[in-house]
């Protein structure tokens, strides 16, 4: 679901802003798009209400990133017993005018797949970004369990 639609309340809005900052720390030229999904019936049917989706647009096609835009989808699980929402997975995908070029999923083995792949240094930056996002959204769970 578009990050702009999920930014209900100060806590979530602050965490979304922090995600943008974390990405821009790794990719300073990126511009954040908090509404990457179109608002049409077909798209709304595909949207995961248990996710926060943010697009990041680079100033042009990047040879290192092998894309022009990166879509990040942070997936959550609402634990009814604990009354908490935990980040359980992150999908990141790089796009050009030709469509999706690569994808990274934190589910299973954190591997990149696709037509092309980013440079190794960019892969490391994206994996670091994902680890930081998990820490950001799941830190209160860890603190509560200590």
Your description of this structure?
Helix content is 36%, strand content 35%. The longest helix is centred in the last third of the chain and has 26 residues, at 120-145. With 146 residues, the protein is α+β, with helices and mostly antiparallel strands. The N and C termini lie far apart (32 Å). The protein is built from four helices and six strands, in the order ααβαβββββα.
The side-by-side strand order for the widest beta sheet comes to 1-2-3-4-5-6
The rough form would be described as globular
Give the N-to-C terminal Cα separation. Answer: 32 Å
Structural domain count: 1
Work out the helicity level. 25-40%
Unreliable runs: none
DSSP helical segment count? 4
Roughly what is the average pLDDT, rounded to an integer? 84
SS-based structural class? Answer: alpha+beta
Number of strands: 6
Biggest sheet overview: 6 strands, antiparallel
The radius of gyration is 15 Å
Beta-strand percent range? 25-35%
Q: Helix and strand string, N-terminal first? A: HHEHEEEEEH
Secondary structure layout:
Elements: H1 3-6, H2 10-26, E1 31-33, H3 41-46, E2 51-62, E3 67-79, E4 84-96, E5 99-105, E6 112-114, H4 120-145
Antiparallel strand pairs: 1-2, 2-3, 3-4, 4-5, 5-6
Helix pairs in contact: 2-4
Q: What are the main properties of this structure?
A:
146 residues; 35% strand; alpha+beta; six-stranded antiparallel beta sheet; 36% helix
């Amino acid at each position: 679901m578009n990050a702009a639609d999920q930014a209900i309340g100060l806590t979530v809005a602050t965490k979304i802003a922090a995600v943008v900052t974390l990405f821009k720390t790794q990719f300073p030229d990126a511009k954040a798009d908090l509404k990457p999904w179109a608002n049409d019936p077909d798209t709304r049917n595909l949207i995961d209400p248990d996710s926060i989706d943010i697009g990041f647009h680079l100033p042009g096609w990047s040879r290192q990133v092998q894309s022009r835009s990166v879509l990040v989808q942070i997936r959550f699980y609402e634990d009814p017993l604990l009354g908490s929402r935990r980040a359980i997975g992150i999908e990141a995908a790089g796009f050009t005018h030709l469509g999706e070029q690569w994808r990274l999923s934190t589910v299973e083995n954190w591997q990149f797949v696709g037509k092309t792949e980013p440079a190794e240094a960019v892969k490391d930056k994206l994996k670091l970004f994902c680890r930081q996002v998990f820490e950001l959204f799941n830190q209160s769970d860890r603190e509560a369990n200590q």
